[in-house]
Amino acid sequence: MGERSARVIIASTRASAGVYDDRCGPIIAEWLERQGFSGVQPRVVPDGDPVGRALREAVAEGVDLIITSGGTGISPSDDTPAQTATVLDYEVPGLADAIRRSGLPKVPTSVLSRGYAVWPAAP
């Protein structure tokens, strides 16, 4: 198997503005590298349209795996699900359900996540 590519997109208006450091992206990137993905660099973008642009860019580049974090809650600025829908071809709801379920022991509000697991459409 050849080299596998991955992109980590962190949706956080405050982290993208430097208000605080993103701690999630590096953890995901390190895990992905242990799984055989190489050169994974988290990309922190503001909530909203920048998330959609980053997703479409990754799909157009043929990235093998795209992981987003942030922006899936129920506040008005949490727009990652709507942005993800712009590249959605096939939803894989069981995977998103399993992710939410695995978070329950530490984060009871994980059930409020509106995150998707999808197979992207062709660019």
TrEMBL record:
Pathway: Cofactor biosynthesis; molybdopterin biosynthesis. SUPFAM superfamilies: Molybdenum cofactor biosynthesis proteins (SSF53218). Residues 7-122 form the MoaB/Mog domain. Transmembrane segments: none annotated. Keywords: Molybdenum cofactor biosynthesis. One of its GO terms (biological process) is Mo-molybdopterin cofactor biosynthetic process. It comes from the Bacteria. Signal peptide: none annotated. The keyword Phosphoprotein does not apply. SMART domains: MoCF_biosynth. PANTHER family: MOLYBDENUM COFACTOR BIOSYNTHESIS (PTHR43764), MOLYBDOPTERIN MOLYBDOTRANSFERASE (PTHR43764:SF1). This is Molybdenum cofactor synthesis family protein. It comes from Mycobacterium xenopi 4042.
